[in-house]
Amino acid sequence: GTYNQMESLQGIESLRVLVEPDTRDAHKIGLTELQIKTDVELQLQQANITVVDGTPGEVPTLYVLYVNLTVLSLENIIPSDTDPGVTVSIEIELRQPATLVRDPSIVTFGAITWTQSLLGSSSLEMAHTAIREQIRNQVDIFLNDYRTANPIAPS
Disulfide-capable partner of 117 in 29, 76, 91, 127 (CB 3.0 to 4.6 Å)? Predict the structure, then answer.
């Protein structure tokens, strides 16, 4: 990410994961919102980032890692006897509160301060595995920027 994107990650200790898949074609290849959310949450936890999911009694967070997945099966667009494949768009965004420079009394709660996106394609047969792997890769980019912004102090 850019310097400003990395800088915006400083001091964030917990995240909520929000996944918005384009469900129809994503479900066709066996991808669910819960599966993607669980994958991303596990990655964050392995990086020692507290994941908040809205469980009663936990401390809420204002920081959201948003995963937007759009899957388009080409089977209805490209008639073919072979595997027509899918195209996929993956967007990973960090959304957090921010104030406006022109009027600091105005606070927005969903400002996108870090973003990474990918547009790709896959065979229908490999789509499930390939898309999960690409989401992991995109989250790894986020985690690398997060670690740069929040270095672990030497003990």
Answer: 91
d(CA 2, CA 21): 26
- Closest C-alpha to 114, from 70, 153, 148, 151: 148
Which residues, 6+ apart, have CB-to-CB distance to 71 below 8 Å?
21, 22, 25, 26, 28, 29, 31, 86, 87, 88, 127, 131
What order of strands is seen across the sheet that includes strand 14-21? 50-51, 14-21, 64-73, 86-99, 107-122
For residue range 90-141, list pLDDT tens digits in order: 999 999 988 888 998 988 888 999 999 999 998 888 999 999 999 999 999 9
